[in-house]
Amino acid sequence: MSKITVAEFQEIAAKQLPFAVNFGFAVTALEPGKAWARAPYHQDFLRPGGTIAGPVLMGLADFALYGAVLSLIGRVELAVTTSLNINFLRRPPPGDVVAEARILKLGKRLAVGEVNLMQDGSDELIAHVTSTYSIPPQAE
Amino acid sequence: MSKITVAEFQEIAAKQLPFAVNFGFAVTALEPGKAWARAPYHQDFLRPGGTIAGPVLMGLADFALYGAVLSLIGRVELAVTTSLNINFLRRPPPGDVVAEARILKLGKRLAVGEVNLMQDGSDELIAHVTSTYSIPPQAE
Amino acid sequence: MSKITVAEFQEIAAKQLPFAVNFGFAVTALEPGKAWARAPYHQDFLRPGGTIAGPVLMGLADFALYGAVLSLIGRVELAVTTSLNINFLRRPPPGDVVAEARILKLGKRLAVGEVNLMQDGSDELIAHVTSTYSIPPQAE
Amino acid sequence: MSKITVAEFQEIAAKQLPFAVNFGFAVTALEPGKAWARAPYHQDFLRPGGTIAGPVLMGLADFALYGAVLSLIGRVELAVTTSLNINFLRRPPPGDVVAEARILKLGKRLAVGEVNLMQDGSDELIAHVTSTYSIPPQAE
How many helices (H) and strands (E) would you count in chain D? Predict the structure, then answer.
């Protein structure tokens, strides 16, 4: 079972992740080592060309992976991203974006995960992310 | 000389990069292959632990590198990020963040660049980014 | 069906990829957009601590992904890697290493893929790679 | 002053990094947080198209950064790479390759560095690497 509930995660987000609130990001489901998140479309997501801007996708991926990390270690809010790599695969037209994050490896000091980003209702990847979170010693 | 002025770049941002407007990002100087950008501190930048959230830094780096790309190819708004890699080096306390972007290689189809992120007034890196932009064929 | 056979791929490797020959790398199966490769263990793979050196894993991943790219575009030998990102997840003890590569996106100019690296006989990832290949214009 | 000499580093390589010996890699200079390395050209470096294969460049970058890490923490052989990101910028024709590695941040648990790869005698980058090393607790 996830060590944090969706409601608990959303409470952290509401109080302490204002950029996620501003973007409207929400975690919709958590399982141990997995998280699903959604960005409901807003026209502020756009970039030249009428597609969704990269930073929105990077932010959503980081947010989803934070959920996946906390699903394994509980409410350790000071887990922080140490690196993130994103490949943009298709230019996403306006619409909701969903993220599926999963942990590839949980160590004592680092967690490494992968995030698939898709348009809602599609299986086609629009971006793929790998990222590493540092886990503070008090969480061990 | 840069193929785009700071004013022209800021006009693109104002009209077509709403996330950058919302974050308050501004390009402050452009030279051929180089761009400087700034994120004036706002409390919405924070994450748990009272430091600046990773997505703010990723967004600023991407924004600065967009400026560095356009400094070389002119107003080709459809240049898009194809990949981005960030290493977070120090947890940034509240304060303005500055970005220095430079192009490492401009090819016909891809531009690769590097961005250093620092707190304003400090030389210490808080994050380091490498990223690739795809240049549309019409720009060649 | 793969646009290149295992025998054809191994012939390219034998004639034109001496580092892969020296390491003993072999592609063992190809499907459209997928490749499987193997590195039979040799003591020259080791690094301090008695585990397998990172460059061996990076080389195997790059080799496997080259197979996956050619499975889709045929014998376009001038397809070249433009970027590679690897996360090392577990220190691999001596033993054969296997790689599973798959293409996430094939565009006209770029192919992006993912490679899972495991010890032979295990499902546990020892490393995870994402990488981009540039496809020469004559291949379009 | 570097906490390890070039001779000591080359001794580790000679005894415990057979792939580096096979490739002919050598560290040529060390300063605190910096290392210079060289790969004397050998025809086994080639790939289709007559340029130097990516894995040779990745191996040389990793080797150089290992030197830069040990220059700061001394003979801690169990420092291991946890991630590496490379962008290939120009196709390198046959010839010696040199690497300049420098540490961007040394923390208690992680060191992050950057490596520039060039052809000998040229200032033009052929590849750019960022990478993270994990430092074992006994080294702290």
Answer: 3, 8
Indicate the burial class of D108 (C-beta count within 10 angstroms; 0-12, 13-18, 19 or more): exposed
| Sign, CA torsion C125/C129/C130/C136 | negative
- The pTM for the full model equals 0.97
**Count of domains observed in chain D:** 1
CA C70 to chain centre: 11
**pLDDT at residue number D126:** 98
Amino acid at residue number C94: P
Query: Is the residue at D60 inside a domain?
Result: yes
What percentage of residues in chain B have a pLDDT greater than 70? Answer: 98
Determine contact, residues B24/B17, Cβ cutoff 8 Å.
no
Q: What pLDDT is stored for residue B140 in this prediction? A: 46
* ipTM, two decimals: 0.96
Give residue for tokens 């499975």. Answer: C71
Q: Which residues of C touch A (CB under 8 A)?
A: 85, 87, 89-90, 104-105, 112, 114, 125, 128, 130, 132
* pLDDT value for C138: 67
Range of the domain at B110: 6-139
Closest-CA residue of D relative to B107 is D89
Q: Is residue C17 part of a domain?
A: yes
Does residue B107 belong to any structural domain of this protein? yes
Evaluate whether residue B1 is within a structural domain. no
Interface of C with D (CB under 8 A): 12, 16-19, 22, 43-49, 51, 53-56, 58-59, 62-63, 77-78, 80-88, 91
